Structure formats: C-alpha cells, structure tokens
Amino acid sequence: MEDTGLSAPQILIIDDEVSILDGCKQALEKSGYTVITTSDGPEGIRLAWEKRPDLIFVDLKMPSCSGMDIIELISKDMPDIVLIVITGYASIVSAVEAMKKGAYDYLPKPFTPDQIRAVTKRGIEHRSLKIEADWLREEKERMQKSFITFVSHEMRSPLVTIQQYIESLKLIASDRFTQDMKNIIDRCEKRLQNLQDLVEHWLDLARIENGTFSEAKVPLVLSSIIERSIEELTPLCQRRDLKLEAHIVDSLPNIMGDQESLLRVFTNIIGNATKYTPAGGKITVSTHSDDYYVYAGISDTGIGIPQDKLPFIFEPFFRVKGKEERQRGSGLGLTFVQKIMEAHDGKIEVTSQVDVGTTFMLKFPRLYEL
Amino acid sequence: MDLKKKILLIDDDQDFLMATKLILEKGGYEVFLAEDGKSGVDMAKSVSPDLAIIDMMMETWSEGFNVVSKLRTSDSGKQIPLIMLSAVDLQGPYQSFEPPGELPTVDLVLHKPIKSDDLLKFVGQLLR
Predict the structure, then answer these.
(1) How far apart are the first and last CA of chain B?
(2) Cα distance from A308 to chain B (closest Cα, Å)?
(3) Is ipTM > 0.85 here?
(4) What is the CA radius of gyration of chain A?
(5) Domain map of chain A by residue range?
C-alpha cells in the first residue's frame, strides 16, 4: 500500500454481521491497514472517540442503533474522520441521505475484497488531501498574521550568523591575515551592515503599513529627543569633521509623540546630513513654535539637492547621488521618516540649494492640555 | 592542569552555534552545544555547565524564556550565570514581542551578532 504517514492508517468497521466484519478485516489487513471491528453501534462510537481512526465503515442497518445516527454524530464531533456507509439494501436513497449527513462514500453489499480495498484507498487519499489542505490553510493564516515577525527572524538570522562567523574568523585567524584579507573582511562587514540596515528599515515600513508598528504616543517635549539624537550622532560627526549644534528654545510646548520613532526621525535626518555635508561643514538643529505648531529644523551646509530632484527624495530607494560609498544607505530612511511624521499628524518639508545646503523642517501639532 | 570552565550554548541555528563555539573555545572554554530548548535543559543536567548562553527565539519566539525558567528551577541551573541572546532589539519599537507574563531573570542580555571581545569579556566577568 501507499505510504500515507508515519503509521498504517487505522480503520474501524461497525457492522452487526460478524461474517462481514471478519471478511473486511482480512481484506484490509492484507493491504497493510490496522483494523478494529465491532458489531455494536454505541461501542463503535466509543471506539471512534478512543482510537480516532482515519476511516470508519458504518453499516446503515443495524438492530442496536441506526447507522444514520452514528454518521451524523461522528461527522459532527470528529469531522476529520472519513465516513463510508455500508448499505445492505443497495438503496441509493439512503446512501445519498448518509452522504448529506457527512459520509464521504458508500459501499453496497455484497462487495468483493477488491471493492472494499478500492473504496478504502480512495477514502484514505481523500483524508490525506483534506489534512494537507487544512494544514496549508492554517499555515497560510498563520503566515499572514505573523508575516512580519516571521520574515524578520528569517532575514535576520542568516545575517547575524554570517556576522558571527566573521567575528570568529577574525578571532581565530587574524594573526595570519594579510592586509588584503583584512580589507576583504572589512568590505564584507560593511556590506553586511548595509544589508542589515535595509532589512531593518524595510521591516519598519512593513510594520507601519500593516499596523503593527507600535507607537505609544505620550505628551513629550521635542528638546529631550533632539538632545538624545545629538548625543548619539556626535561621535560620527567628529569622525567626519562636522560641527553638530542645537539651538533649542526654552519652554518648547509639548506635542504628542512616540519617543523611539521620533528619535529615529532625528537620527535619520541628521545621519543623512552627515553623508552629504563635506568635512568642515556644519549641521544645525533648531526649534521654534507658534500658536498651532512646534517646528524642528535640521540644516546642513552640504552639497544640496537640485530642485528637480526634491519632489522625489521621500520615494523608496530614490538617491540624489548614489555612486559613492559614503552616500550608501538603505534608501528607505526618508520614506520611514515621512511615514512617522504622517502618523504624528505632522509634516516634513525640505528646502535646498545646490552647494549651499539643505534644510528639513518638521512640523508637529502642538498639544494643548485641558 | 587547569580544568576548563564549561559553557552550554543553546541555539537552533547550527551555524550560529559553530561560530560562537569557535570564539568561546579560543577563549579557553569547553563548549557544549544544544540545538533546541529541550535538549539544552537535558544537557545542563548531564554536563553541569558553569555558564549557559540561551537564544531567545527558537521553536517559538519565547522558547529561550522557557529554557531559562526550567534551568532556574533545576539543581544544575539554579546557581549558574545565564546569558540570553536576542536578535531583536527589545529596547526598540517592537512591541509585537509582548512578553508572556513575567519573565525569568537572566544575568545578561546580549544582542546578536556579538563582538568576540565583548562575548569573552562578559563571559569572563560572569565566571569570575
């Protein structure tokens, strides 16, 4: 017989005629099935509960209880089990009724061993297909629900593992590395880091889109977030010989916002500025407010963005200049920033002049607490 | 001869186990590997490690916490330092990773990938 799983399919036969039970048992056991039999209806139901067979044959006409009732009960309580009725009085009508109540097939008496084997094979195949279909459907639902979590794990794991291998390689063999080898490993690490940033940014966007990006909006004052972002980026600016300054007005009004995503908004924009500002330049963060809005501006003395490119800078993967390594990012940073600003009922505007610099202006509705 | 300190490493990623094992062995430790939570707990009983490093996301995203709970209530794991590894930044905006109730305590949480120097430094500190 065909292999349908780990163990032989189990068949339960419920029929009041002992000779039929014996005949069926023999025919099916020869084909490798495990067979249990009973001539008593209620005992059959009990066995179905206890043994959970793959397939049950039920004689429709038994003295102790109606086969039709057994069909109805089992198909309702144990829908995974394939039910096949044995009809003594070759009645199509009763077979149709049984199938309406949940039977999958019927077997008219008298039947040959080959006939019961064929019906059984078909029933077992039907069950395997049904189980597979159910599994696929559940799997699909599960995938959809946890798609982001799943993808993030599946995408991060190999990246992390490659990075860990490089770490171990450096530790166990770095004393034997030539300069060329070291350079290769450096390049690998840089490219891996880029890929990891891309994954993280893509995940953030996917989370925003499917609504699982968590935002815990609380009343907050932008100054603290700007201070944190400046603290975070000062080392980078020092390395690139850039001045990073903040001009934050005292008593800036509160806004409603999510600390972590707003921090990323600022680190993103300031990070961008470091990429497009030549050494010796300056990046300035300043704030002000009016009756309706709180504003935060990030200005640089960088290479600027041509007017005709400005409308596109929030598009995913758009790059003003992209050949140089220094400019390489995920290509999703500003898209993320814009989405976060939208989620804050805010606005982001950009003005720029080539070779003079660029200013990003963030505008948040100010919070009036009653 | 000095007896090497024993470290048990539990992670469902074979390659990650191998990479981390190489680092720890270079650091002079004897390393035992387990690829899932259950065999990790069993192995803790049989080898009595001096320290265990457990990945948070294995069969389920929080399997690592189950392992920690089991180790913390077993004789072999009650006293030893435990390090939890995580590939997600739990500080970040990832609240879809809501912890299932109160989390068992570990001595240290490290974010993957881990710099060799950091790993050896932290392990050294915890084993002192």
Answers:
(1) 19
(2) 35
(3) no
(4) 35
(5) 10-144, 146-210, 218-365
